[in-house]
Write a structure and sequence with these properties.
By secondary structure, the chain is of the alpha+beta class. The protein has 2 domains: about 170 residues, no CATH class; about 220 residues. The chain has 17 helices and 9 strands. Strands 3-2-1-4-5-9-8-7-6 form a 9-stranded mixed sheet. Strand 8 and strand 9 form a beta hairpin. Helix 4 crosses helix 6, helix 4 packs across helix 14 and helix 7 packs parallel to helix 14. The longest helix is centred in the last third of the chain and has 29 residues. It is globular and about 75 Å long.
Amino acid sequence: MIMPPTAPGQCSTTLLDEALKASALDEALRALNELGPEGGLERFAASLDPDWIAEALSSTGTASIRRRKLPADQALWLVIGMCLFTDRSIVNVVDHLNLVVPGVKKLAPSSIPKARYRLGPQPLRWLFEKIADVWGETPGLGGYRGLSMYGIDGTHLRVQDTDENFAHFGKPGGRNGSSDAGYPQLRLVALLNLSNRLLTDAEAGPWSKGEQTLVKPLTRQIPDHSLTIVDRGFYAYLWINELLGEGTERHIMIRGKKNLTCEIVKVLPDGSALAHVRPCKALLKKHPELKGQSILLRVIEYKHPGGEPGRLFVSLLDPDVYPAKELVVLYHERWELEIGFDEIKTHMLERKECLRSKKPEGVYQEIWGQLLVYNLVRREMLLAAQAHGLPPKRISFRSSLLWIRNFWITASLTRSPGNLPKHLAELRSTLDVLILPERRSQRRYPRHVKIKMSNYKRNRGKRNSPPTQPIDAKRENA
């Protein structure tokens, strides 16, 4: 093939790009060729130690005593598969992953949900906590002046509007008062390692449980020599006092509410100040032993262009070691957790209206499965970033998720190396979009309401009540 001439002493950019793509493609093909007949599952399962799965089942008492057509270990992979492929039915996931024991040609569809509920949520939670503990720390990935960085935030997820889910989770209020929302909702609070963006711990519960209640169990997973960044909704004197009082060099940075009062004791050279934060009167009534106690924190006032004034309360007291301007910029690392929630809701759940499970135990199982799959995808992203010498945030979550899904699909379609060329175009497009450009952190966008609420009156429906009116009459009353 005749190539266009290049100027002496210069390297053709086209040739270099083609060589790099060819090298990456060859590497991908070698990996794909090594998958084997059942490689899609093994490729994704490679990050999970088989002993962890066995221990998760034995520790939670869910291991299959008698050999079933869909045993507990395969039911666990069923939950992982249904969380990876949220657009597929669980029957389709079983068929796609070939999860039944050898020799079984047909599996009754009704037995699949039974196997899933027989497994329960505890093995998935155990496995999530295990990989979070093993993978939670990644040496050499940033941090701030010798401190590892963590973020805590909360979100909510809609669940199926069944009687059981409604009784357990409840609904938030709406236009017409309490419990007026369209769906029952689950509240979730998570702890994220802001350096490698792996979830370290999480806690889920009914809507009635506030974020300040759910965050308390997460404290045990915050390591020594760390800085935890949280939003103002998590401010609670007892929790902050516990976080700072246990361990070694555990620090916090929290945005202060407007009505949070403090006693300034010293103004520092960089404009920040040392202040005593004391328990409020309501807390003192419940805990009179706290009278006279206080927490010494550093207060940093700031204002972004076009924004409202704010205050940061941080336990890093030395202004020479921890400059105020750096801390103001550092606070916005908390948004990495918001991005993580968006990746779960938008990309993993495909913007679904609600989770698929109709019972509370299935909802919790699905939640722990989603968090487990999120960390597995993040683990692959971290390995890819390290291989290319890039920070984890430069790897596309969406592309990585599709890449993993494609490997599973490819394994179900490809039974011989001769079929590999069919997937070359898809592999090329995937390789091209894994790496993201650097972020433009200075962008600012005002919020707008793009879609207004419907003009139709809300039809709330009735639980367990059959229709008593003709259809036409119902339409007139709608």
